[in-house]
TrEMBL record:
Organism field: Luteolibacter pohnpeiensis
Name of the protein in question: Endo-1,4-beta-xylanase
Coiled coil segments of this chain: none
Keywords assigned by UniProt, alphabetized: Signal
Signal sequence extent: 1-18
Pfam family, one: Glyco_hydro_cc
Domain Asl1-like glycosyl hydrolase catalytic: 186-287
Length: 365
């Protein structure tokens, strides 16, 4: 073999190896966003599921209920929903999990909805197991929601790379699927759960979560999705950002944020985030007693073309009509003022005027 040919063959792997995908430029992100309809929807788990694990496990996946409820979403003019995945169904049977996700996307497409999928979540119960999930605690907000990954994995960074096939596998499988709006890699990674679950949280949780957060962005970039990736900031005072906030904002393609405050504070947060010159998506808002209502916030988001995902959709096993303080304060029945959610279990609106407002903002011009 001639030396020149030998050198060419040896160099070939280097020549064909692609550069790892990089964060979208602000220009690319804004160009992409300009082609999208104004994103409006809700954070979604079916009324039949107490948490994201029950939603996706084979034994409790409920496509009929999902189809029914997404029909209600379509009736509002919603075009997207934020949907939490979980790592356990992937470990149980990755092929079957991908088929369920694909089936869910088929239902979404039927109702003209393109979801944003969330991979990991630091919020609520860190002890999580496959199989039958607990029944709701009466009158308690989100009493059965679980973290992903659970403390069993999070306590040891040596286990983190076992999660790469899940993140990479899902994104790579659907990387060119137009039915997906975007990827949200990690929900509220630096949330301390208000001091709850201190006995069962992973030791030095935040230091470990930060490692996993950074790895998750690397894995997502390696999968080369055509859709944007992000992770949402949620801390109350973005004038005093921590290491999590800086990393999330400086590595996301689109700016993803949460706020459950009145219009004045919402505008303040938006002004801080505008300096990144990227599309703004509010992936959590709407807590009526906090002043974050559809009437107060949604017209502003529509005017600014800020994506809007309220928390809660149908009153069901998640029980998010009850406020956060239901973890410590006893409630004995339905609160007069719902905290979250739009519809009752049968599809009847909680407040018809809210439904009318949403429809007025989503109807074609």
């Amino acid at each position: 073999m001639k030396k020149s040919l030998l050198y060419l063959l040896l160099a070939l792997p280097i020549l064909v190896h692609a550069e790892p995908a990089k964060q979208w430029s602000p220009e690319k992100a804004n160009e992409w966003y300009a082609k999208q309809p104004w994103p409006i929807g809700a954070n979604y788990v079916p009324a039949s599921a107490i948490n994201q694990l029950e939603m996706w496990q084979a034994e409790t996946y409920d496509p009929k209920r999902i189809d029914l409820e997404l029909g209600w979403a379509e009736s509002l003019g919603f075009n997207t929903m934020r949907v939490f995945l979980h790592d356990i169904p992937w470990k149980t049977d990755s092929d079957a999990y991908l088929k369920r996700i694909d089936g869910f996307l088929t239902i979404c497409e039927k109702h003209k909805i393109r979801p944003m999928f969330v991979f990991f979540d630091s919020v609520w119960n860190p002890v999580v197991k496959a199989g039958k999930q607990p029944e709701p605690r009466p009158f308690v907000h989100n009493s059965g929601w679980v973290q992903s990954p659970g403390a069993e994995i999070l306590k040891d960074p040596e286990h983190f790379d076992s999660l790469k096939p899940y993140v990479y596998g899902v994104i790579h499988h659907f990387r060119n699927d137009d039915r997906i709006f975007a990827w949200d890699l990690f929900n509220e990674p630096n949330n301390d759960n208000g001091g709850r679950f201190t006995e069962t949280e992973a030791k030095d949780k935040f230091a470990k979560v930060l490692i996993l957060l950074k790895k998750t962005f690397e894995w997502a970039r390696e999968a080369e999705p055509s859709q944007p990736i992000s992770s949402g900031v949620w801390n109350g005072d973005l004038k005093k950002m921590d290491e999590f906030d800086h990393f999330q904002l400086e590595n996301s393609d689109i700016i993803n944020f949460h706020i459950y405050s009145n219009l004045e504070k919402t505008k303040e947060r938006v002004e801080i985030l505008k300096r990144y010159h990227r599309p703004l998506i509010c992936t959590e808002y709407m807590a009526r007693p906090e002043g974050s209502t559809f009437e107060a916030i949604l017209p502003y988001f529509a005017e600014q073309k800020i994506g809007a995902y309220n928390w809660g959709f149908v009153n069901g096993k998640s029980q998010t009509i009850f406020p956060w303080d239901s973890w410590t304060k006893e409630y004995k029945g339905e609160p007069e003022l719902w905290f979250h959610d739009i519809f009752r279990h049968d599809g009847t609106p909680y407040k018809q005027d809210e439904v009318d407002l949403i429809r007025s903002l989503t109807k074609p011009n």
